[in-house]
Prior knowledge:
Layout: E1 3-8, H1 13-21, E2 27-33, E3 46-50, H2 56-62, E4 68-71, H3 82-103, E5 107-113, H4 139-158, E6 161-167, E7 169-170, H5 179-182, E8 183-184, H6 186-198, E9 204-209, H7 221-225, H8 238-244
Helix pairs in contact: 1-6, 2-3, 3-4
This protein binds D-galactaro-1,5-lactone (15L).
D-galactaro-1,5-lactone (15L) is lined by residues 76-77, 113, 115, 169.
Amino acid sequence: MTQQILITGAAGIIGVSLRDSLRQPDRHLRLLDIKPQIELGTGEAAQLIEASCTDPAAMFDACQGVDVVLHLGGLSTGGFNWEQYVDVNINGTYRVLDAARRAGVPRVVYASSHHAVGFHPSDTGVTVPDYLFPRPDSLYGVSKAAGESLCSLFHDRHGLDVVCLRIGSYRTRPTDQRALFNWLSPGDCTRLFEAAIATPAPGFRVVWGVSANARAIMSLDEAHAIGYVPIDNAEDYAEQINADTHSLHAQGGHFIGGPFTDVTFE
Ligand code: 15L
């Protein structure tokens, strides 16, 4: 049977990449975003949906017959105000989970962020565990931690399978010092999402979304438990990074969230 996957935030950087890399025979993608999207290619097994993840009716319609929702929609960085994070990220995640539940979707994969725990130190020499208690580094991080809490509630109360991915620095290649430990390459990002889609009966999980970086500080135990095996390594770019590093990324160097922890970061 054809697997139906709904991607919210399909026009975002990760969404666009997954649109391409998740293509498979017997798979159909529903690509939802409030922003305009690239038109469908010939033979592309997908549907474009222009809607906001904060719209309950649109989300309920989009979720009909879906096997997995990949919830990437929302504000994906700093620079917005509290009301915007509450409306788009927190309320949006609630709407997605609620629509999925009401439509009978069995699984949601939530694009969380390391910024949900960004004020944890990065330089203790001890592996940063899975399920680290939230310690957000910004309002953006708070919105991601709130999203994880909603995922936990929908699992415990309604039995939804939810995999929360605490994504590190997603880039085509690592560009700063912090990325030496938290880079997530596009190829590994696809492997991570494929694992979260395929793993049998995950229940509620919180998984680090990073590559196989030689200077890794995060646990990959839960990642391995869901079948994610990263292969890319930021170390391969280390020499270029040392030359490239710009001052912003020197800030917050002792914390997982790096520059997001700086008091001037909005
Ligand atoms: C994130 O969570 C953001 O989505 C992205 O915009 C980057 O800023 C990334 O973290 C990062 O810190 O590198």
